[in-house]
Amino acid sequence: MSAAPVVFLDRDGTLIREREQPPRSAADVEFLGRSIEALAELRGAGLRLVMVTNQSAIARGWLRYEEFEAVQAVLREALARQGVALDATYFCPHHPSEGYAPYRRRCECRKPGDALLRRAAQEHGLDLERAWMIGDALRDLEAGARVGARGILVATGKGEREARRLEQAARAKLRLAADLRAAATLVLEDLRRAPGERQGK
Ligand SMILES: [Mg+2]
Ligand SMILES: [Zn+2]
Questions:
Q1: Do residues 52 and 117 lie in contact, with contact meaning Cβ atoms separated by under 8 Å?
Q2: Which ligand is nearest to the CA of 92?
Q3: In terms of Cα–Cα distance, which of 112, 144, 183, 139 is closest to 8?
Q4: How far is Cα 179 from Cα 174, in angstroms, rounded to an integer?
Q5: Using an 8 Å Cβ cutoff, are 18 and 54 in contact?
Q6: Which domains does the chain carry?
Q7: Would you say 88 and 51 are in contact if contact means Cβ atoms under 8 Å apart?
Q8: Which bound ligand lies closest to the C-alpha atom of 109?
Q9: Which ligand is nearest the CA of 111, by number?
């Protein structure tokens, strides 16, 4: 079986609304507009979907691992109701300088680190030549760039503020999408292009 193209996907601010407190239960989960449709469309085009999320709230003691798992179950069920499944979710519970042992440590998995993306590629037979990273933070895109994925910054969550932080030249190179649905459209356009015509790689 040949390796599969993949979209790596951030969670908070990309798929669901980012809140001041980390989501702990179903009541805290609000899907961003059209985000489930976007995933369905990517799935329909044969892409693998791998969520990669930093959850330093666990290291900081703001969120218990069980609460994180409960929210993931809510996401899975909501997606399943629309006929969508993620291939996998990888998360980093660490923080380099805040919080408590054993999660307070420098790690390779916290984005912009690329350890989780590499692990996902290995465990799921992903084709990193045909990989995209969609997120609302520059560190999402940086993690993606480290494995050769093309990045798309969504303007939901922190995205708009993140884009403003960049100087003009850097901003010109950035691919910015209004939301996950618009990002999915860009991915599908890329995917349809012949490999030789692809941009940015
Ligand atoms: Mg985010
Ligand atoms: Zn980590």
A1: yes
A2: 2
A3: 144
A4: 14
A5: no
A6: 4-192 (3.40.50.1000)
A7: yes
A8: 2
A9: 2
SS3 state of residue 83: coil
Provide the phi-psi class of 125: left if phi over 0, else alpha when psi is between -120 and 50, else beta.
Answer: left
**Of 6-10, 145-149, 196-200, minimum mean pLDDT range:** 196-200
**pTM for the whole thing?**
0.93
pLDDT for res 59: 97
Q: Residue 195: what pLDDT?
A: 64
Distance 16 CA to ligand 2 centre (A): 21
Distance 19 CA to ligand 1 centre (A): 10
- Residue 120 and residue 147: Cα distance in Å, rounded? 11
The per-residue pLDDT for range 2-32, each reduced to its tens digit, is 899 999 999 999 999 999 999 999 999 999 9
